[in-house]
Specification:
The two termini are 25 Å apart. The radius of gyration is 16 Å and the shape is globular. By secondary structure, it is mainly α. The protein has one domain. It contains eight helices and four strands. β1 and β2 form a beta hairpin. The chain is 49% helix and 11% strand. α2 crosses α4 and α2 packs across α5.
């Protein structure tokens, strides 16, 4: 599976923006890397539990874990897709001896796009992963039982990643590896409908 989707609906962008606002408010100081990891866990946990993604982002298998490329790009400089929701600040962290990209909300959080299940998953991720560092979160995604590891191994990427010969790929995380046949059907039907909506930009 290597085809990527680079369009989201207005509702998806709103939900993504308000998710980042909520994470920044509840977690506190949140960097681009940590936000990307938490977004991944939101989708993975929601899919595993309900067969339905939290947002439905597309994650590529990169060296340091699963990455939603469109969001990575939008959080790297001045946001375009998320410009109405967040701003990006560069801050030097002495403990890391490095400059990091920090996400700051521009508006108040709204739960209009969130179901009760969404809010349950969101608060679960904050409780269990919110206090971990971006490095710690990356270690979790690299566990030998993780989807990232399974997809990287299946596509012969591990050696190149480990040897520093490759830092990204266009192979996609296959969430159906998490699911039984019943939830796989739910997930596939949901994503097919979502792709049609994205095509019409609903």
């Amino acid at each position: 599976m290597s085809e990527n989707i680079h369009r989201y609906t207005t509702d998806e962008i709103s939900k993504l923006g308000h998710t980042l606002i909520y994470l920044s408010q509840k977690v506190g100081f949140i960097t681009k890397t940590k936000a990307l990891k938490l977004l991944y866990f939101l989708d993975e946990i929601s899919i595993k539990k309900y067969g339905i993604p939290f947002i439905g982002l597309t994650y590529e298998v990169w060296q340091f874990g699963p990455v939603a490329q469109d969001v990575f790009i939008d959080l790297s400089d001045n946001p375009v897709m998320l410009k109405d929701y967040i701003s990006i600040q560069k801050e030097f962290v002495h403990g890391l001896n490095n400059e990091v990209t920090v996400i700051e909300p521009l508006i108040d959080f709204s739960d209009d796009e969130f179901s009760d299940n969404d809010l349950e998953v969101l608060n679960y991720v904050i409780k269990h992963f919110g206090k971990l560092s971006a490095f710690d979160l990356s270690e979790i995604t690299h566990n030998s039982t993780s989807l990232w590891f399974k997809n990287a191994k299946e596509n012969n990427l591990l050696e190149s990643f480990n040897n520093g010969l490759l830092n990204s790929s266009n192979f996609l995380i296959d969430f159906t590896l998490l699911l039984d046949p019943y939830k796989t059907e739910i997930y596939k039907n949901y994503m097919e409908t979502k792709q049609l909506e994205r095509g019409f930009n609903i």
